[in-house]
Amino acid sequence: MPVLGCALALTGTVCDDWADKTSFGFMNKMSAPVRPDAASPRFPPSQDDSLRVAISARLNDTDPQAFAQAIGRSFADYGFAIIADHGIVQTDIQAVSDDMRAFFALPYELKLKYRIKNGGGQRGYTPFGIEAAKGARLSDLKEFWHVGRDLPEDHRLYPASPKNIDVTELPGFHARATTLFRALDKLGVQILRAIALYLALAPDYFDDKVRDGNSILRLLHYPPLDAPSDAVRAEAHEDINVITLLLGAEEAGLQLLDRAGLWRAINPPPGCVVINIGDMLQRLTNNVLPSTTHRVVNPAPERMHLPRYSMPFFLHFESDFEIATLAQCISDERPDLYPQPILADAFLHERLREIKLA
User: How many Å apart are CA 262 and CA 277, to the nearest integer?
Assistant: First the structure.
């Protein structure tokens, strides 16, 4: 199978049989997608109207190029990929999941003491009803906790890096979250190496650009709904960062907007990580890898009494990295859509203002 880098993607060259290669360890199931005008955005479509992609990370051990092609094509087509056999220890995931549920069960007034004033929601607690999608009239129906990278005081990025805080009511909370943060960060670098191969870059192209990136682990709680609401759990949006690695997507509600303008449910097999492209990588690749619009819709009436939890890891570039379009992603057919480079930190804060966190 040929390398499908930027140049091939620009000319429309595709590998039509990629989804049929069972040796890749994944399957692709798509059926009867839901058009935006055919179903209320407040409720999910049938579980059969879904996109399922499970690519085994073990393929990367035996055939890195095949893994790169499988994951790269999924990203190019949908902006999303689902990874099985990712190697993150289940007990580490469960420990943070338990902590997350325990924290959000604390009284609201107690949780508020962990909100950092003028912190842009980058660390600690952000209450229910604060964050909103860009241009949205209503805030999302969620609350969350952010854990970032712990940098040494002599690091060049330390002065501008928000400081983490711990939860005194839950001893070991930050330590356990940091263990999961590091595991997701490691997996993220592995995925970026596959993306680099797909783009015909050196495999380690991204390594030093994200090594001490301003990445964030979000512990996310969508509370039960007492009644139908015009607001939704997460309004349609794109992620700011490079890539997002999501744990806990098995619970129904996550949907992506495909190229045909159809909403597709994302229903990963248990234990998988859902990964999507963010705006920073879309910009770097001149839209060859798209940052796909996605949302979390409200549950059907019979499930409104149930909360939803998930743990997205937003992998970022280092704050002083300049996002400038890759030369190999520019051609006469695809002119540079982003001729003005921007620092990752400036891009982040521009977007934080748009979503009402700064």
Answer: 18
Burial call 37-59: b when 16+ CB within 10 Å, e when fewer: eeeeebebbeeebbbbbbbbbeb
Structural domain total, the chain: 1
- Return the number of other C-beta atoms located less than 10 Å from residue 97's C-beta: 18
Within a domain: residue 1? Answer: no
What amino acid is encoded at 291 in this protein?
A: S
* Tokens matching residue 180: 């999961």
- The torsion of the CA quartet 105, 108, 109, 111, rounded to 10 degrees, works out to 60
Residue 352 burial (CB < 10 Å; 0-12/13-18/19+)?
middle
**CATH number of the domain encompassing residue 251:** 2.60.120.330
CA distance 308 to 27: 26
Q: pTM to 2 decimals?
A: 0.86
Domain span at residue 46?
6-354
Backbone φ, ψ for residue 65 (5° rounding):
-70, -40
**DSSP secondary structure code for residue 48 in this structure:** T
Q: Which residues of the chain fall short of a pLDDT of 70?
A: 1-51, 53, 358
Check if the beta carbon of residue 284 is closer than 8 Å to that of residue 323: yes
The tokens 């521009």 sit on which residue?
350
Strand partners, 222: 308
Give residue-wise pLDDT tens across range 82-141: 999 999 999 999 999 999 999 999 999 999 999 998 888 899 999 998 888 888 888 889
Inside any domain, residue 171: yes
**89 in a structural domain:** yes
Cβ atoms of residues 232 and 41 within 8 Å: yes
312 phi and psi, to 5 degrees?
-80, 140
**Residue 246 lies inside a defined structural domain of this protein:** yes
Rounded distance between C-alpha atoms, residue 49 and residue 277, angstroms:
22
